[in-house]
Amino acid sequence: MFFGRLISGDRPGSPILAIVLIAILLGLAFAPFLFPGTRSLDTAARICIFIALAASYDLLLGYTGIVSFAHVMFFGIGAYGAALGLDGLGRGFGSIAIGAAGGAVAAAALAFVIGLFSLRVRAIFFAMITLAVASAFAVMVSQFSDITGGEDGFSFKVPRELTPAFKIADGKLFGVSLNGKLLLYYFVFTGCLVLFLALLRVVNSPFGRVLQAIRENDFRAEAIGFRVVRYRIAATCLSAVAAALAGSLFAVWLRYAGPDAVLSFEIMVDVLLMVVIGGMGTMWGAVIGATLFVIAQSYLREVMGALSDATEGAPLLPDLFNPDRWLLWLGVIFVLSVYFFPTGVVGRLRGKD
Amino acid sequence: MPPAPVLETHGLTVRFGGHVAVDAVTCAFAPGELVAIVGPNGAGKTTYFNLISGQIPASAGTVMLAGRDITRASASSRTRAGLGRAFQLTNLFPNLTVRENVRLACQARLGRGFRLFSLASDDRELTAEAEAILARVRLASLAGQTVAALSHGDQRKLEVAILIALDPLVYMFDEPTAGMSADEAPVVLDLIAELKADAGRAILLVEHKMDVIGKLADRIIVLHNGALAADGEPAEVIASDVVQEAYLGRDLTEPAPEPAPEPTPESTGETPHV
């Protein structure tokens, strides 16, 4: 019952999906112990952050039916907010809070202005405006290098409690040293979990129902008395704030903020794919999509290297599986998954193709 | 002394380019009154509706609802002020359930849209109200279905349910039985008759079937080439020359044949025949 309310009564709707989701939750919750090693911990943290980011994008794309290309810009604003907070105010949790709050407010304000000027008109216009604003923002970040570090970005110090030098206790637990890195991971994990559950609540709230009505038929939503533009602007601001907070967590995790890591258009495309592959209009889709995507991005090269070695001697195959061709295979996997699962993995598992 | 009108239009006009689609229509509708609006295809009936409910802006004239000038108000604020509009082409939320469609209308009426962190399913009052309305329109057994899976007739009933959920001062039905089978249409017409019995509400009904109008309407107005051509008791209007002429001499005491579908785009504006 309590758990039902925690997930806002939004049941996965398929036993297989439920099992997969529980496995992902447990895997992420115990990642430092289940998958020891710097690289796998980094992958786990990225999965957490991209689940929150993809979920916030799905609020816009899947629930409200708004296509935005500025979502990663808001992610970047949050990342730079936290980064500038820690850089300027010194390493402390207060600096993170102030920086993240500043980033969230800036993201909401910018989303509000973009929404106010472009959500009244046709949807395609909004998409184009977001593309233009996001490009302009990326140029600004690289130009104002005194503040942002330009193309190189900048690193900063996080609170000492979140660094490997900080020891929680002597010795190890299940072979994992109890240091600040572990705390940092759980800081990120908890932050993303709270963000995700909050978004899950929003889409199952009365407000979320109105957003779905607008997605289904904005003309009729207006005709039964909802001020559609206000709801669209509110959804845009809300998803911008969630993206900014996810960005803040990412910056703290990386101890770095730079255009390629938090602002690039590639990330925008990645997030779009995560939502589409997982299944639009369902928050669980964001979980599945982000997990699959980040794992594929991180480990496809290894798998291909192994395949290439295994097929050594056979004609053509070793070349085809050459680790350098990993992007080709990633592309093939995406094309196939969109083709075979047009409603996403979640839609497929729920039998709604 | 008749009751004060709840809805009035004064010289309501809209021009599309050089064409006058609705031409200075002045008309008043009293509470408790069911007014049928008739006229040949392209006479401007749906356009007149769109002007009243705010889907298209008027070129001239005013619309007054309960004494308030709403001529420049948005469609959604007119709905909140008490104007309930059903559309000629079924216009619903196709991938949501039947229950959710009605619930949303209740939610809109009560202004419960901006609740971000409560659970929609916790609002049992809203669910109960939606269920009661669905029972009233004989859709209770389909409450959990998605709208896209419903038959055309059931979708039309759902349109009526949404209007009931809005509890408007003025109901506007645009050919509510169009495309319905002979055994389904009476259900919708009975519902409209029930709404009329509720009293205190005005009902505007665009309908082609003269037998239906004769039974239901208290008053008939005739639009012809966008202008008000007649306004009065059903019997006298049907017998009048203007109706005989407007319907090209057809004998209107006989049930009219099903009219040809009106030209696009019906849901927002009728393109007049030139």
UniProtKB/TrEMBL annotation, chain A:
Membrane topology: Multi-pass membrane protein
Record key words, sorted: Cell membrane, Membrane, Transmembrane, Transmembrane helix
Residue stretches spanning the membrane: 16-35, 47-80, 92-117, 124-144, 183-203, 233-256, 271-295, 326-347
Principal cellular location given in the protein's record: membrane
A GO term for molecular function: branched-chain amino acid transmembrane transporter activity
Any single Gene Ontology cellular-component annotation: plasma membrane
Localization per record: Cell membrane
One Pfam family linked to the record: BPD_transp_2
PANTHER family: ABC TRANSPORTER ATP-BINDING PROTEIN, HIGH-AFFINITY BRANCHED-CHAIN AMINO ACID TRANSPORT SYSTEM PERMEASE
Protein name, as recorded: Amino acid/amide ABC transporter membrane protein 2, HAAT family
UniProtKB/TrEMBL annotation, chain B:
Gene3D superfamilies: P-loop containing nucleotide triphosphate hydrolases
Keyword hit for Transport: yes
Residue span, ABC transporter domain: 7-250
Domain of life: Bacteria
Entry annotated with the keyword Nucleotide-binding: yes
Any one Gene Ontology cellular component term annotated for this protein: plasma membrane
SUPFAM superfamilies noted in UniProt: P-loop containing nucleoside triphosphate hydrolases
Chain spans, region Disordered: 249-274
CDD domains hit by this protein: ABC_Mj1267_LivG_branched (cd03219)
Name under which the protein is recorded: Amino acid/amide ABC transporter ATP-binding protein 1, HAAT family
Species per Swiss-Prot/TrEMBL record: Albimonas donghaensis
